[in-house]
User: What shape does this take?
Amino acid sequence: METGERKVLAACNLCEAICGLELTIEDRPEGPKVTSIRGNETDPLSRGHICPKGVALADVYEDPDRLRRPVKRVGDEWVEISWDEALDLTADGIAAAINRHGPNALGVYLGNPNAHSLGAQTHGVTMLKSFKTRNKFSASSVDQVPHQFVAWQLFGHQLLIPIADIDRTSYFLVFGANPMASNGSLMTVPDFPNRVRELKRRGGRMVVFDPRRTETAKVADEHHFVRPATDAVVLLAMLQVLFEEGLTDPPAYVAGIESVRLAVADYTPEYAAEASGVPADEIRRITREFAAADGAAAYGRIGLSTQEFGSICQWAIHCLNILTYNFDREGGVLFPEPAVDIVGKAIIGRGHFDLWRSRVRDIAEFGGELPVSTMREEIATPGDGQIRAMLTIAGNPVLSTPDGAGLGDALASLDFMAAIDIYLNETTRHAHVVLPPTTALEREQYDLVFHTLAVHNTARFTPPVFEKPAGAMHDWEIFREIALRTTARLERKKSMAKALSERASLTVSPTTIVSTLLLTGRRTTMRALRSHPEGVDLGPLRPTMPTRLQTGDKLIHLAPDLVLADLQRLRSTVDAQLDSRAVDGELVLIGRRHQRDNNSWMHNSERLTRGKPRHQLLMNPEDLAAHGLSDGSRVRVTSRVGEVTTEVRGTDDMMRGVVSLPHGYGHQGAGRRMANASRVVGVSVNDLTDPERLDVSGNAALSGVPVTVTQA
Ligand code: SF4
Assistant: This one.
């Protein structure tokens, strides 16, 4: 074997920023070793950016704890088995549940990494369709369905989402988002720190609303504390100011503006100030500045979409951009034009709502998925349609979804569970069989979703850095085998034509599918992408309206019934909070993310868990004193759903009355070594979050959970 050092271009698939990477690989007699990972400066989108997680991509590849062969549970032990046995066990378990109890007896949960895997996009969907279950759940309904729900109603497609033109805007208004830590979400914006510096160099401003002084708030020109879950009334008050002061200038293809004016008329800045803590004068001033700016963009993310009125928030953000003529213009928000148009070519469905409902709580589906907040009860409640078997794919909902502890108990009661995952964790430990696919460096990647959400049009295809090891399977191969083997075992037979077309779409490789899709877009080809592994530049965002609208009449109907109907619930909820606040002085809980965390995984990487502890409950020092607590003491945090005990840290980064725990913590050593580092063990915020608290879209309201905090 040849030895020596070589450079290889790759892509990071850990988060939505999709940074280009340059790997240095040493070919050693014992096998290749990644000796360094840097940002790729020639990548036209990420421009050399890398965060600590990107460097840790090699840790996943080399992790001794990562599963490399399928395992099955025998008593309390995990035993390695062949792929054949694992695939047969999985197909047997799924088919048995469907044959005995019908297709809805199978539940499926998709974790966030599915959006970052080409194979999951090209083959996972076909496999899921072949099961015909309505009990599909995913991580989307813990933090992003409001975006899709509103985009579907306004623009005609759940993924037709306008993106801030961060490189040319002069006013960036941010609600409940922390792109300094995340590099954007539902806005692929790698190198955000430099893009903000450039914004300021050209005289622009960034204004942030958040109940925590986040990393983004700290580099903003202005930061305003806003009480959790009251952003909606601040945004509605901004719309009210626009109408009252004659600051609206909407495009001709927008209908329903008078209905919006009437709907927001009572949301005065004074009312919003009382509810949110943001002074009325500031709401007026910022609204005027936003409307007057030469290119302004409003953006709201997880802090908005994880609250009970997430859809109203996302709708109001769109209204702000549209009514001030900052929609579909340079420096405002625009629709990206990806090389593979998953929206225009209907590669991802446009979305639908309430075609069916959950069995136990009667909650509507969106886009073919039920809210993950209903998953536990669908498993645990006996009766027709009860979930008897689960398949989880790259997810750890026991840590990442509401009432995670309760969900863990429910998973333990299943007749059968299989997991497609590279780790044993708090969720997959309940499986009977775990099937681990190859990891990012061993497979090809083209980001079908994130080019659609990026702040600059580019395309990039990344061949595998390492060959697939002998005896390993890619995720798409696992999907193909499970689908085909399960279908063969089902008593309800498909038509020959259907079976053949399913087999054909499962057999063709992801690379071939992308090559074909690129031809339909005519903006670049697989050949061009292979000769430019750094990616090709397809230009800045540009106006495309109304051509790209997916609505039947090419109009934006700005007053959708489903959102406007929820305004009454908002009003009564806020009024009730205003009445009760002085009496009980309750605290409210929000989550938080850190640049070195990646939802509930990557805690096995030593380099990401080094540094100061970051698992603590954050609390304002004045609240600490008011509750008779001291910095560093152990406290008991109690919600309607559960109770956790952890350490508290005083910081004036927190708004008064608000406490915060990080998302994705609370590892119980379920992996062989998973997150033994005490810095990140902590407790799971989702042992406190409440599956009863939902947005109208069905998204979980993880933010703004009422809690009490007492000395432990
Ligand atoms: S920001 Fe970090 S985790 Fe996200 S793609 Fe870039 S390197 Fe990877």
Q: What stands out?
A: Residues 252 and 465 are 49 Å apart (CA to CA).
